[in-house]
Each structure stands twice: as C-alpha cells, then as structure tokens.
Design a protein that fits this description.
With 203 residues, the protein is an alpha/beta fold. It has one domain (2-163): Spore Coat Polysaccharide Biosynthesis Protein SpsA, Chain A, CATH 3.90.550. The chain contains 7 helices and 9 strands, in the order βαββαβαββαβαααββ. The protein has helices spanning 22-42, 68-78, 95-103, 136-146, 157-160, 169-175, 179-186, and strands at residues 2-7, 46-51, 61-63, 83-86, 108-112, 118-123, 152-153, 189-194, 197-202. The radius of gyration is 17 Å and the shape is globular.
Length: 203
C-alpha cells in the first residue's frame, strides 16, 4: 500500500524549543522521520514523504508548502485508493504496529493520537476527506459518518504516541528502538526519576 508521510522540513517541532535549538530540532525530526519510513517499509508499505521543503531521506518526496489538510486532501483526490497517511513524528513506530494499520479492514481506518489528534489513517473510500485542525479524531469520525462510512479504529500505543512536547521525550527514551532514541542518547539526554515521576535530563 502507498503510504504518505507528512513532514515539516522548515520549522519542525517548535514546541521542543525549550530543550532543543533549531539545528537540533531539525536533526531530531529527521531521525524520527527515518524511523517511521523504516517501519513502513518493513511492514510492506511504499512510503513517500509530503514535505514543506525538500529533504533527502531515500524515498520520493513531494514538496507542498500548504497546511496539512489541503495538502493531504489533494493527495486523496488525485490518488487511487487505498492510501495510508502516517505522521512523521511517531518515534515509537515499529513494523508490527504499521502492519496492523495497513491490514485493518474497513473503508476508513483511524489511529487516534493523544489529545484528540489523528496520527495515522487508511482511506479506501474516495468520498472521505481529512481535517487535521483541532480535535481531528472526532472530526474524522464525523466526516466518515456524514459520508455513510463506519470507520474502524486501531488502538496502538506505538502509533498513538507522537512527539511534540519535552515530556514526550520520556517515551522515546523508554520505548524507542531506532534513530530517534539513539540521537537523544548521543546528545546527552537521559531519564531522571524525581519523586516517583520520570522526566528527562541532559548532561
């Protein structure tokens, strides 16, 4: 199955600016992207990156400077379904989790993210479109319902965990198996336990 992986190549991961400077955020974001691409390929998918600027990651890249919703909807409108969309910041993604997504039955398959987002989906019904603003998981269920579609949901910790905030780095250090976790460790990040809670520190 073809898999579109969106990626912000211009100003990635701005909410990590408290712990990473601009070049570091760019390097870390690219490490996460490569982890996602590795997982998609190993799961049998055919990944292509949809980026806001050109990036060299060894797969086809389409540059589209628009926001995510119109950029993805154009891909859905121009493509023969099925088409999967997997976000590029899923640093915990592994082949088994992506394979569950790609193999799930249904005209529309959704993976909820924490906080109401949608981290991945499969679209087999051309009447469906995306809306990534706000609580997109709720909105995608509504859009599917209005099109007469009963969406399937894949409940996956590894695909529901996107990395946006400094606290999310804990999950990468605890559970990451790829380049993103290795990059953090190489840059001196480590787990710190304070009063029974786990946080990250940096040497």
């Amino acid at each position: 199955m073809r898999v579109v992986v969106p990626f912000d190549a211009r100003e990635p991961k701005t909410r990590l600016s408290g712990v990473l400077d601009g070049p570091e955020r760019s390097a870390f974001a690219r490490a996460m992207l490569r982890d996602v691409l590795d997982a998609v390929r190993s799961a049998g998918g055919e990944p292509a990156v949809l980026a806001t600027a050109d990036v060299d990651v060894g797969v086809p890249v389409t540059v589209d400077e628009r926001s995510l919703t119109p950029a993805i909807n154009d891909r859905l409108g121009a493509a023969d379904v099925p088409l999967a969309i997997v976000m590029g910041d899923l640093a915990l993604a592994v082949p088994d989790a992506v394979e569950r997504l790609l193999d799930a039955d249904g005209p529309v398959v959704l993976v909820p993210g924490r906080g109401g987002g949608t981290n991945a989906l499969v679209v087999r019904e051309p009447a469906f479109h995306v809306d990534f603003h706000g609580a997109s998981f709720r909105d995608h269920r509504r859009i599917a319902s209005e099109a007469g579609i009963d969406p399937s949901v894949v409940d996956s910790y590894r695909l529901s965990t996107d990395v946006d905030e400094p606290a999310d780095l804990v999950e990468v250090l605890l559970h990451g198996e790829g380049r993103a976790a290795a990059w953090l460790e190489d840059e001196g990040f480590e787990l710190v336990v304070n009063d029974g809670r786990v946080d990250v520190g940096r040497d």
